[in-house]
Amino acid sequence: MFRCTLHPIGLKGSFKVRAREKIFQVRDFKHSPEAQESRKEELEKLLQDQEAMRTSLLQWCYASYNEVFSSWMYLCAVRVFVESIFIYGMPPSFLSVVLAPSAKGEKKVRSILEELCGNVNR
């Protein structure tokens, strides 16, 4: 958006014609203090509405986080079960476990798992 101020001396008509030739839209602007004040009040009302909606959204997010996280973990567990049966051919009575060992205990956990499961997948 560009702003150009023209005085009412002769240039106004030729400027509009040249601007339209270059695919610009020229509009006349009339300053109105009442309209400006109403826009300012409308902006303040919109900002208050925005803040109210933001607080209600944050409350909803805090309340729903637990449910969303549990549902996501459930979907992950179902995916592990289905992929284990269909892709890897495991029997339906298997146990899937998620392990997160500490950095210094990782080698010990891996060696125990290799002893239990064999060297199938390292």
From TrEMBL:
GO molecular function: proton-transporting ATPase activity, rotational mechanism
Keywords: Hydrogen ion transport, Ion transport, Transport
Subunit-structure text: V-ATPase is a heteromultimeric enzyme composed of a peripheral catalytic V1 complex (components A to H) attached to an integral membrane V0 proton pore complex.
Role description: Subunit of the V1 complex of vacuolar(H+)-ATPase (V-ATPase), a multisubunit enzyme composed of a peripheral complex (V1) that hydrolyzes ATP and a membrane integral complex (V0) that translocates protons. V-ATPase is responsible for acidifying and maintaining the pH of intracellular compartments and in some cell types, is targeted to the plasma membrane, where it is responsible for acidifying the extracellular environment. Subunit C is necessary for the assembly of the catalytic sector of the enzyme and is likely to have a specific function in its catalytic activity.
Protein name: V-type proton ATPase subunit C
One Pfam assignment: V-ATPase_C
Membership in a protein family: Belongs to the V-ATPase C subunit family.
Species of provenance: Zizania palustris (Northern wild rice)
InterPro entries assigned: ATPase_V1-cplx_csu
